[in-house]
Structure formats: C-alpha cells, structure tokens
Amino acid sequence: MASAVIIPFPSRRCLSAEERALITQWTAASRPHGIAHVYLSARHENDPPDVHDRILIVETAETGAAWVIHRPARRWILTSGQDLAELGSYAALGDALNAVRPVASPAVGRGLG
C-alpha cells in the first residue's frame, strides 16, 4: 500500500504542522481513488527556485508527477505535473488538494490558507 512521503529539507517557507497534517489526511483519503504518492519538496540553498516548496502528487510510478501545488504568494497554485500549465488558484490548501481528488472527509478542506 502506498503512503505519503515527507522529505524534511530545510526551507525558506516551510509548510506548517497543520498543512502537513492536512496533506497526510488528504493522502490517506485519496489513496483509494488513485493517488499513489505525495511528495513534499523543500529548498536546498543551491537548488533552482522552480523545484522548491512544492507538493508533488503522483497517480502511479509510470505517470510521474501528475499535479504540483505551491504557494508563491497568498494563493495556492495547482499546475499540471507534465507541462506545469496552471490549472487553478485557491485561497486554501484543502481546496487545491480537493481540486485534484475531492474527498468526503470534512477534516480535509477549508481553513488552511
């Protein structure tokens, strides 16, 4: 059974404990609906800025990163993992996650901006 993987690198804008908990809850709720892995990336000082502070969501190992979520300013941006085309902009992290796979749990949703 696949599980969430959290990669604890130092970061300039780290996800909060509440955001990490939300991602873990959403991943567990989404697993039966086709989500295989969720990776959290954080910045290494010498990494290019386009690869840090991202949430990468993968359906299967064969398809690779299907979606990427990040927050460059005050909104969470959902992009395609294949071509990084923007798919949506959300005030709350839960809304961005649920745009990928809506989950029925009220614990996964609004409130984390």
Apparent shape = globular
Low-confidence stretches: 7-12
- How much of the sequence lies in strands comes to 15-25%
Distance between the termini: 30 Å
SSE string, helix = H, strand = E? Answer: EHEEEEEH
Task: Describe the sheet with the most strands.
Answer: 6 strands, mixed
Number of beta strands: 6
- Percent of residues in helices comes to 10-25%
Structure description:
The protein is an alpha+beta fold. It has one domain. 19% of the residues lie in helices and 25% in strands. It is globular, with a radius of gyration of 13 Å. The model is unreliable at 7-12 (pLDDT under 50).
In short:
This protein has 113 residues and is α+β, with helices and mostly antiparallel strands.
Walk me through the topology:
Elements: E1 5-6, H1 17-30, E2 37-41, E3 54-58, E4 65-70, E5 76-80, E6 86-90, H2 93-100
Parallel strand pairs: 1-2
Antiparallel strand pairs: 2-3, 3-4, 4-5, 5-6
